[in-house]
Amino acid sequence: MTQRLLMIEDDQRLASMVATYLNQNGFDVQHSATAKDGLQQLQQADATQAFAIVLLDLMLPDADGLDVCRQIRAQPQPTGALPIVMLTAKGDPMDRVVGLELGADDYIPKPFEPRELLARLRAVLRRQQGVATNADRVLRFGRLEIDLDARVIRLDDQDKPVTAYQFNLLAAMADRAGRVLSREQLMDAVKGEPLEAFDRSIDVHIGRLRAAIEDDPKQPKRIITVRGAGYVFAKAQDV
Asked: Which of 9, 37, 144, 236 makes the best surface tag, with the fewest CB within 10 Å?
């Protein structure tokens, strides 16, 4: 099934090449050369023309891609929960960490192979769709609810927006509540791919989840660190 993709990229030559390749591989690519136009396209898309994913360049002529990522995440659902893959010429690992902290689901540096980009996009979409198709149910842990069907996290009946990747990560942990899971196990459960060497991005996502669902993220009671082993999602909460 064709899925609509919004590419916000000012390099017209690169955008044309990527659009041609992705259009041949199951995507309907809409291109914006500026942040302003890209955000307008997102806001104007109706239910029949909704985007499935955003491919966002870090360096745009009228805005910083990180600011655009932040603005997308601030939108109401479903726009605010759209998967975002950042595309950038910068290779500094810190840029990747900042992007993940702001809500990006993946990050690919330029130059890149179109096949790798396609694989990354498909992997992000699989992660987003995977949990909801497992079962239509709500996981409840005290005041915390994880609605797998609606893909919504609620604390005290208040929605807690997170990225698609972070939702899947929390759902995977909740399905294994009480078990200590290493970073490798968590990455495998969410991505279905081996952990890249020295990839600590899982810690960034855990930090974002704690900010969303913990009463005090500095003293977490729901997602607990087990030093030298990984993380455990507490079975018993608010007791």
From this structure: 236
CB 5 within 8 A of CB 29: yes
Say whether pTM exceeds 0.85.
Answer: no
Largest CA distance in the chain: 58
pLDDT at residue 73 is higher than 90? no
Q: DSSP string spanning 119-185?
A: HHHHHHHHHHHHHHHH---EEEETTEEEETTTTEEEETTEE----HHHHHHHHHHHHTTTSEE-HHH
| Rounded Cα distance, 38 and 227, in Å | 43
Q: What's the rounded Cα separation, in Å, for the pair 239 and 236?
A: 7
Q: Give Cα separations from 144 to 53, 221, 222, 238, 239 (angstroms).
A: 27, 12, 9, 9, 12
Positive or negative: CA dihedral 112, 113, 119, 125: positive
* Tokens at 162, concatenated: 């997170």
Please choose, from the candidates 179, 112, 171, 99, the residue with its C-alpha nearest in 3D space to the C-alpha of residue 141.
Answer: 171
Containing H/E element for 61?
none
Q: How many whole angstroms separate alpha carbon 148 and alpha carbon 140?
A: 11
**Least confident segment among 58-72, 111-125, 137-151, 218-232:** 137-151
pLDDT tier, 196 (very low <50, low <70, confident <90, very high otherwise):
very low
Would you give the DSSP letter of residue 69?
H
- pLDDT number for residue 199: 52
CB 102 within 8 A of CB 88: no
